[in-house]
Specification:
mainly beta, Hypothetical Protein Tm1070, Chain: A, eight-stranded antiparallel beta sheet
Length: about 130
């Protein structure tokens, strides 16, 4: 199959927040943020995330690989290297890939029994 490459190399998610608590069974109902990364290329995408805060220096880079012709739903809650993303703190994120990918941002907020889910396509930077 020939490459059908869609997407961009640089993305930004200006709004990030992992609620500090959850309601319901974990891990399914744990409040979380997710970057859904789509790689339509025939080669693996090497991706770096940098997390920005209002009152401290950025964290990162966090490095992940999105295999060729695959998707990766990356929970920010699971990022630990170089440090965990703090819960209950506003942040923003840049996502840089060596090949074009598509990025969608999703939040599950289960602080109440009535769960809220939001999603949006990230801002393409190039």
């Amino acid at each position: 199959m020939a490459d059908t490459i869609i997407g961009r190399k640089h993305w930004a998610i200006a709004e990030g927040y992992i609620p500090a608590w959850s309601h319901g069974p974990e891990p399914e109902m744990a409040s979380h943020e997710t970057a859904c990364l789509l790689n339509t290329s025939n080669e693996d995408a090497q991706v770096e995330l940098t997390i920005f805060f209002k009152d401290r220096d950025p964290a990162g880079p966090y490095r992940v690989t999105v295999p060729a012709r695959r998707t990766l739903h990356l929970r920010f809650n699971n990022l630990t290297d170089p440090e965990p993303i703090p819960k209950g703190v506003d942040y923003a994120c840049t996502i840089d890939s060596d090949i074009p990918i598509v990025v969608q941002h999703t939040r599950l907020d289960s602080r109440q029994a009535e769960t809220a889910l939001i999603t949006t396509v990230a801002f393409p930077g190039d």
